[in-house]
Amino acid sequence: TNIKIGAQNMHFEEKGAFTGEIAPRMLEAMNIDYVIIGHSERREYFNETDETCNKKVKAAFAHNLTPILCCGETLEQRENGTTNDVIKAQITADLEGLTKEQAEKVVIAY
Prior knowledge:
The chain has 110 residues and is of the alpha/beta class. It has one domain (1-6, 24-39, 53-110). The chain is 44% helix and 13% strand. It is built from 6 helices and 4 strands. The chain has helices spanning 24-29, 40-45, 50-62, 75-79, 83-94, 100-105, and strands at residues 6-7, 34-37, 66-70, 107-109. Helix 3 (50-62) crosses helix 5 (83-94). The chain is globular, with a radius of gyration of 14 Å. It is an enzyme of class 5 (isomerase). Belongs to the triosephosphate isomerase family. GO terms for molecular function: triose-phosphate isomerase activity. InterPro entries: Aldolase_TIM (IPR013785), TIM_sf (IPR035990), Triosephosphate_isomerase (IPR000652).
């Protein structure tokens, strides 16, 4: 089928007591294609950092999932004129340590 399925979130750990989170292995077992990482709500309300997003991106690739990496600035950053710097820093940090081939497969959402 041409229909692709995505998940709204994923934890980076393989196993452990992480109530409310879903492991990448579970998504892979359900034949999920994509996973959203770094959504502004996760960054704001759950204090997800670029380090956390980087771990999630790597975990996604380790489990045959295509990451949809969300990036964006806060209203304050936009008003300060730092949007481009913020987004560049997010993408650089979130993709750190990936191969060129992996980085080319990441879907960037702004």
